[in-house]
Design a protein that fits this description.
Elements (H helix, E strand, L loop, with lengths): L2 H6 L2 H18 L4 H9 L1 H6 L5 H8 L2 H14 L8 H16 L11 H16 L16
Helix pairs in contact: 2-3, 6-7
């Protein structure tokens, strides 16, 4: 059993999620093999979300904040007629993000953000660590 599942305290839930994702990849493999390969490649990272607190999982599962920011970026950049180079596009995108930041409200699960930070740092440390006996799986740190 992967270390992420052992740390989550919910190995059955982790296995069920893994089974569902693998089934999805298998169904997609015939028509979109690239997408199926990408899903399987990121399987450990996808499943690491399972061990986050429920409120934080719900907040992060919603894409509204991303869609809101993308809409604001479109609005800010709509009058640009000629994109001279990539750095210009990055500057305008950053300006749009700064404008979108003004409209962000507090994340409903803001009290769990330290847990998320710890999980991300542990994930990063696991990715940078040499391959271990468990195959070098991600999500080896304690988050809760």
């Amino acid at each position: 059993m992967p270390r992420c599942a052992r740390l989550s305290g919910r190995p059955g839930r982790w296995r069920r999620a893994e089974q569902l994702i693998r089934n999805l990849a298998r169904r997609l493999d015939q028509e979109w093999p690239g997408i199926a390969a990408t899903i399987l490649e990121g399987l450990d990272e996808i499943l690491c979300v399972v061990r986050l607190p429920r409120e934080l999982r719900r907040s992060l599962a919603c894409t509204n904040i991303i869609e809101n920011m993308n809409g604001t970026i479109r609005q800010v950049t709509r009058n640009v007629k000629r994109w001279r180079d990539a750095s210009m596009a990055l500057r305008w995108t950053a300006a749009g993000m700064m404008e979108a930041k003004k409209g962000f409200r507090r994340l409903m699960a803001y009290k769990q953000l330290p847990t998320l930070k710890a999980a991300l740092l542990a994930h990063q440390a696991a990715r940078l660590a040499p391959v271990t006996g468990d195959g070098g799986l991600a999500c080896t740190g304690e988050a809760a």
